[in-house]
Design goal:
Layout lengths: L1 E10 L2 E10 L4 E6 L5 H9 L6 E6 L2 E2 L10 E4 L11 H11 L4 H14 L15 H14 L4 E5 L7 H18 L2 E5 L3 H7 L2 E6 L2 E7 H6 L4 H6 L4 E11 L2 E6 L4 E6 L15 E5 L4 E4 L7 E12 L2 E7 L6 E7 H4 L7 E6 L5 E4 L2
Parallel strand pairs: 3-8, 3-9, 6-7, 7-8
Antiparallel strand pairs: 1-2, 1-4, 4-5, 9-10, 11-12, 11-14, 12-13, 14-20, 15-19, 16-17, 16-19, 17-18
Length: about 350
């Protein structure tokens, strides 16, 4: 188990503040956050490349807070890769094994199957300067995992790869992590990557932990506007509690001149005082549908400002019926085929898909 307790880090004017986090052994924990939120700073501190101002870092039974990097038994893939330009790919990957006294034969036996899976076998004898960005990323990933360290830190390891190769390597890395029982801490901006690889998920903004827990809970039930923003929600509407019935809490949105239904089991609605709390209703673009005016739940009078077509779907910008407020909706292309900019349409927000978010 990796445990961070009240970690404070200073980098110039930026601070990571009182961050506590527990990673269960043998699981993958993913950190997602805004640019400049402190994700890389945190990995560098766990790896021992940077010192925390205060707080404790332990892995297993060991306090590693003040150990030198080479004594922490941690593999780290930094965002800038840190490959050695004077070495060939093979030498870069096996460098850590050589320092640990692993024989050439053992290193080669580990390298060959790994090189095939990462699709790097054909350039093992090239110099680093002769590689593309994606090839360098795969080389650095191989170097991080070949040592089979119990704790592996990966800072955006797939950022330079095309989508097809990314998806292949996600599955490969997840399979290895499960089989070898690695404790894996991964930083990414890619929400699909986070959902596929992660067991637990943490959200960080401005050096502070916004939310943390099992990925299904964090993804499906963000509690604050900051958390929902990090997770890609597009629409946030001021709203007031207006009653509950049939398993839903209803919030009136002046911008839509309509009530929006949120499941009464939504985490922020627990307790007795939520009726007095100040909420924003979060709505994902994919949860807004175009509907007919005869629908019982139709919200009327939305004007199409723009249509952005992409493959089988379209993103549309909708001007709300009340006030100067816009929504983004993601709809099947067929649903918008008969419409043009300037048309008035009715929309539907399926009950229970909206989020009751605390404003922070």
């Amino acid at each position: 188990m990796l445990k961070l307790e009240n970690i404070n880090i200073t980098a110039g004017k930026f601070h990571v503040k009182n961050l506590s986090l527990t990673l269960q052994s043998g699981m993958c924990h993913v950190i997602v956050g805004t640019t400049g939120s402190g994700k890389t700073l945190l990995l560098e501190t766990i790896a021992g490349l940077r010192r925390q101002d205060s707080g404790r870092i332990s892995f297993g039974e060991r306090d590693i807070s003040h150990l030198e990097p080479e004594l922490r038994d941690v593999s780290y893939l930094p965002q800038d890769l840190c490959l050695f330009p004077n070495m060939r790919v093979r030498e870069n990957i096996c460098y850590g094994l050589r320092l640990r006294g692993v024989s050439i034969q053992e290193a080669e036996s580990r390298l060959q199957p790994l090189a095939i899976e990462l699709d790097i076998a054909h350039f093992l004898d090239r110099h680093i300067d002769h590689l593309s960005g994606g090839e360098k990323h795969r080389t650095a990933l191989a170097r991080a995992i070949i040592s089979d360290s119990p704790l592996i830190l990966l800072d955006e390891p797939f950022s330079s790869l095309n989508l097809g190769l990314k998806r292949k390597l996600w599955h490969y890395l997840k399979d290895l992590q499960i089989k070898r029982k690695w404790t894996l801490l991964l930083v990414t901006h890619d929400l699909e990557e986070a959902q596929l690889l992660g067991d637990d998920l943490s959200l960080i903004a401005n050096g502070e932990l916004v939310d943390s827990g099992p990925k299904s809970e964090v993804f499906c039930y963000p509690k604050t506007v900051s958390a929902a923003c990090i997770l890609g929600a597009e629409n946030f509407l001021p709203a007031e509690f207006s009653g509950r019935s049939d398993g839903f809490c209803y919030f009136y949105s002046p911008a839509l001149a309509a009530k929006i239904a949120v499941s009464q089991n939504y985490p922020t609605l627990a307790g007795d005082n939520y009726e007095k709390s100040c909420f924003k209703v979060g709505i994902r673009a994919a949860d807004i549908a175009i509907c007919g005016s005869d629908s019982a739940t139709a919200i009327k009078g939305c004007i199409i400002d723009n249509i952005f077509r992409k493959g089988k779907t379209a993103t549309i910008v909708l001007r709300c019926p009340q006030k100067n407020f816009s929504l983004l909706a993601e709809v099947p292309l067929a649903d918008i085929a008969a419409h043009v900019e300037g048309d008035s349409v009715c929309i539907n927000i399926a009950p229970g898909t909206a989020m009751a978010l605390i404003q922070n």
